[in-house]
Amino acid sequence: MSRFSAITDNPHENRFNNKVGVLVTNLGSPDAATTQALRVYLREFLSDPRIVEIPRIIWMMILHGIILRIRPSRSAKAYQSIWTAQGSPLIDITKKQCQKLKEYLIEHNHNDVEVVMAMRYGNPSIEAGLEELREIGITKIVVLPLYPQYSSATTGSTFDAVSRVLTKWRWVPQLHFINGYHGNEKYIQSLSNSVQEYLDNNPTPDKILFSYHGTPKKFLTNGDPYHCFCHLTTNAVGCQTRPR
Fold first, then answer.
1. Would you list the DSSP string of 63-82?
2. What is the pLDDT of residue 163?
3. For a Cys-Cys bond, which of 33, 186, 209, 217 suits 83, CB 3.0-4.6 Å?
4. Which domains, ranges and CATH numbers included, belong to the chain?
5. CA dist 138 to 130, 141, 143, 169, 177, Å?
6. Do 144 and 129 form a contact (C-beta atoms < 8 A)?
7. What per-residue confidence (pLDDT) applies to 154?
8. What are residue 113's DSSP bridge partners?
């Protein structure tokens, strides 16, 4: 049996087309707000060497001997407090973003684009998303991680997951991987509009607080640009917004 897979065993069967596939990815979520679902999700998440850069053997002992015995039940209670009738808020919001993107593309006469959602951890997986695009004959794929500021732990990990899937494909698609947009003009303008709307309708605040996910200082000192990109985004927004 070949180690490489294809969507057809007939090399003369033309199942491919000129459409472009957009794989919109996000971090992910457990399938349910339960201890068992959290254990499965956290095992995948915390086993990623991009997330925890501790020597593998030591970390696996800590993860399976301590963390996965204690943390799932605690995390399940936290998830239960935000779970909705639609399930995970992150999954639900990302689905809506994908739908909005599809509608925008159609409105601008890009009817030859398929938009598919995938999660780095949990479901729907990146492998499932890529397989969905392959099954409809798409050989040009844009991967769009929803992380404006690049980090090895997020965008880098997404690239790893995409690459692992494609190493098993016989026909590797044309790939465009978007590794960040921390300074993109439209992204900055969108953030600025949000801040400006607040400033126009409220008393001038003493400060405006920008909140980002934290990463270990070691990531920065080892060359991860995330910290610097967060500052660049903040400064760019600040230059475009002013109190009245």
1. IIIIIHHHHHHHHHHHHHTT
2. 98
3. 33
4. 1-27+88-149+161-180 (3.40.50.1400), 31-87 (no CATH), 185-240 (no CATH)
5. 9, 7, 13, 13, 16
6. no
7. 98
8. 20
How does pLDDT run across 144-162, given as a tens digit for each residue? 999 999 999 999 999 999 9
Confidence of residue 5 (pLDDT cuts 50, 70, 90): confident
**Burial (Cβ within 10 Å: 0-12, 13-18, ≥19) of residue 211:** exposed
For tokens 């090399």, the residue is 11
The confidence score (pLDDT) of residue 241 equals: 82
- Please enumerate in sequence order all residues whose Cβ is within 8 A of that of 25, keeping only pairs 6 or more positions apart, or say none: 117, 118, 119, 120, 126, 129, 143, 144, 145, 146, 158
Amino acid at 136: I
Predicted pLDDT of residue 94? 98
* Strand partners for 29: 122
> Is the pLDDT score of 207 beyond 60?
yes
Q: Specify burial of residue 83 (Cβ count, 10 A radius: 0-12, 13-18, 19+).
A: middle
14-31 CB burial, b ≥16 within 10 A, e <16: eebeebbbbbbbbbbbbe
Token pair for residue 110?
């890009």
pLDDT digits (tens, 9 = 90+) for 170-194: 999 999 999 999 999 999 999 999 9
Asked if pLDDT for residue 12 goes beyond 70, the answer is no
Residue 217 tokens read as 């200082």
